[in-house]
Amino acid sequence: MKYSRRNFMKAAGIGAVAVTTSVGTSVAGAVPAPANIPTAISKETGSFNINGKMYPAEYEVRTTLWEVIAVKLGMTGTNRSCNRASCGACSVLIDGVSFYSCHTLAMEAVGKKIFTVEGLGDEHNLHPLQKVAHIHNAAECGFCTPGWEVTAKGLLDKNPNPNVDQVKAALSGHLCRCAAYEAIIATVIDTGRVLRGEAEIV
Prior knowledge:
The protein is an alpha+beta fold. Helix content is 39%, strand content 13%. The chain is built from 7 helices and 5 strands. Strand 3 and strand 4 form a beta hairpin.
């Protein structure tokens, strides 16, 4: 059998008429019962333990952790880039484990310890990781830096003497658009040496 656009449109029209006639006949004179649908929970209030301090926030149940941290609480150090859990720029630590905050619901982090780049250091008191990164020029554009730095801190907290393969595995979920991967890996290795007291930052 051959099909044409004319045949398709004709068949579709006949089907639409049949459905309309059927629906009109079946519901004539009927009174629909009111739907008994429970009201959805649209908002919640929770307290977030971020870098050792408690912050209350109201948020929708669909709100991501990044939105609470950066938008509602104004901690803009954590960057959101791809918004698809692919690049790692938005990474934070939750109970010491690295998570993409752009794809983590805020409600999942309530009551847990959240660590962001603001807790790592500031311009007056840099963390050794930040100092060594500056020496190695491991941040060219700097957009991915907050994410891999907190992930690297999580690694060094658990393993202060990682080898290159362990660093690569820990940072495998991070993309650097400037391709500064060698400098980033060297930064983590050398920061471990500093934290172990085997080297000094000059």
